[in-house]
Write a structure and sequence with these properties.
The structure is a homotetramer.
Chain A lengths: L4 E5 L7 H16 L3 E4 L5 H12 L4 E5 L13 E4 L6 H8 L2 E5 L3 H12 L4 E4 L3 H11 L3 E4 L2 H13 L1
Parallel strand pairs in A: 1-2, 1-5, 2-3, 3-4, 5-6, 6-7
Helix pairs in contact in A: 1-2, 1-6, 3-4, 4-5
Chain lengths: 163, 163, 163, 163
């Protein structure tokens, strides 16, 4: 049986210290649960921080890259999936994740949340601005949960997997 | 030089009469301007209505289909682009459109708007619920415009193309 | 009902005069039959020549581009489908074509022929080196036909469509 | 730094005992070298055998699946990348592989070899029929090597990585 994959999506650009800390902490907790971390794999913002966190606890990290080679990849990605498909790879991110956690919100992350809802996946929102919470709950309230912290997000994942 | 393509995105499932009427009207106006209509191509909801409207005025319609063949396609699609990629084709929809108009809002449409913003495209929202307007304006206010009707949407497109 | 699409695949780089002439002639004949021409859309080699030929007879030309914008596109493409997917778009080329004609053979073209055979499409080979003919006939003899000229290729397409 | 990925491509359908044995042996040897095995991930033919072989020696196995969920996956895949893209995922297989080994040859495998050559990857052919060897060497002789056995294929990979 294949391993459980938790997908963490979030902005790649310069992000706040809080987002970076939360993403790092979340990656660490995911690794401690022995789940595989899947992300967009780039070496900046939430994507980099969550991978660094997971590696700090010896987790396995998969990066699904938008480009046609590994340039710009996070140094904490173990296995690079090179798609060469740009943002079309966002759909692979969500289809491959048993559950999706979004940390923060940019346009790319918003597309991943929407694609996850379309694919009937559960999505946990961390550090999501009110406007995002309002829209995603309107689109599919029964698939969306809000977590106040990385550890609450992980508790929610556990609850969902034990159902 | 290739022709101007206006992409119209919108829910595929059963939609309200107002959405159907607006999508049909929008397709008609796009055809009258001699722009090419690009859509998700399926034979239901906004996708079907906008194509039927465009054909009613003799427009050229391109349908970028999610499936691996033409099953479920709108009867008003002239040229079927068969992607076999599911929702990953949403990114092709927006990259191929010189401008994106969203009519109504479901999870798939929300992903297309977000992908369009990520790709630095302009997006015009028609019949968009307040929660959608709020989020998309927060993500990229300078790329988003609100139209109260299909004809206002077409006026906005003209304004953007004359810039 | 959507229009018949004939996909013409072939090398993009510098190609021989014979390939260029045959591709141009083939595009012209396709347009005269009122079929839609679909190609990889780039402005060089077989791709450019076949589009130029089709436009010389007023045909409709669709270019399914590998890049994320229209740079490098053939000037004879009417409708640009911008995939941003690199060579993964080769599968869209073949899925979207009612029949595939390959003119010449490079690595990209070989992948398109193989993908077409995998998708159970018929493929007509024009100016195909012996090594290509041998392999593709071995893989799926009943899906492959050899044409000695553009006009023979078009006759074969007609025969297949009348079956 | 991300781990070395060896992609093994091969037919999914019913295959000969020799192909099954060679794929299994190759997977085992790849795992013993501590390389990550990447394959098309389906639970049949070469794809299944190579994954089973790799797991028999405790390797890490990545399956890049064509479908939109995990149905039909090899039981020996650790990490499932769910693309929902059909054969368009073949390009991801080759872009993600530091080197590609093909075992046997069907239409899908031929497309992967051709896409690999297009992407400037090295390809090692095992159990490849003469027609395949002839074509792929014609297309890009300097990127293709022939191995008489799984162990020779692994020696060739080592040689390439030490260059």
């Amino acid at each position: 049986m294949s391993r459980i994959i938790v997908g963490v999506m979030g902005p790649g650009g310069p992000v706040s210290d809080k987002l970076t800390r939360d993403a790092y902490e979340l990656g660490k907790l995911i690794a401690q649960k022995d789940w595989v971390l899947l992300s967009g794999g780039r070496g900046e913002g939430v994507m980099d921080a969550v991978n660094q966190g997971a590696k700090s606890s010896g987790g396995l990290t998969i990066g699904v890259l938008p480009g046609g080679d590994k340039r710009g990849m996070s140094t904490a990605v173990d296995v690079a999936v090179v798609t060469g498909m740009g943002s079309a790879r966002n759909n692979i991110n969500v289809l491959s994740s048993d559950i999706v956690i979004a940390v923060g919100l940019g346009a790319g992350t918003a597309s991943e949340i929407a694609l996850a809802l379309k694919a009937q996946k559960k999505v946990i929102l961390v550090d999501c601005p009110e406007e995002g919470v309002n829209l995603f709950c309107k689109l599919a309230a029964d698939q969306v949960a809000i977590a106040q912290s990385p550890s609450e997000a992980v508790s929610l994942v556990e609850k969902l997997f034990s159902q």
